Amino acid sequence: MSEYENVKPRFEYRTFQRNYDDLVIDTIRNKFECTAFRQSSEVYIMSTGNSRNNTKLRDNKMDIKCFVQNKESFEQWNPLAKFKFPLNVERITTELFPAFSIACPKFERSEYTQEQFLEEIIKPNPQLSGVEVLKRRFATTVENCITEYAEVEFNGSPYKSISIESTEIEDLKKAKKVLHLDRYENLNYLVAIKRAIGMRG
Questions:
Q1: pTM for this prediction
Q2: Domains and CATH numbers, the chain
């Protein structure tokens, strides 16, 4: 049984900016005052053939989330799988590469550590790119929605991000209004990173 089998997919609204306007910044300061932060270093795998599956490496694991639908300007994402390294070739071939939506390469090993996977499979492939993402995240709740303000870097390039997540559309509408996010485009990590690194597809 998958650890995600009984997880209900959440809708989200996520924005990325170099800087937000003063109204949004003042609101964020009030909402996130004295909030502790978490910092993480991750690697997102970008593929020219994929615009629906969010794949990232963190803590020696590969996480995959799949786009489900867009409803009333909110994107719904479903966590699909979590793989722990080392990964054998069968899992890479049957479960991981289908998420990249490109053909499998030839494999020289029967299994791969995370470092080997990045250096020998991802790095040489012109259709794939491993993007280093540093996140400094502050979390709170707004209108019953999981709300996050983050300072992120894509291969060292800095951005700010605000996001709201919930299974309830009406709560998301309220939070979106409170945080003044309607003036900003809803972008998921796939789109934001591809724009940042200039990848098409």
A1: 0.91
A2: 10-197 (2.40.320)
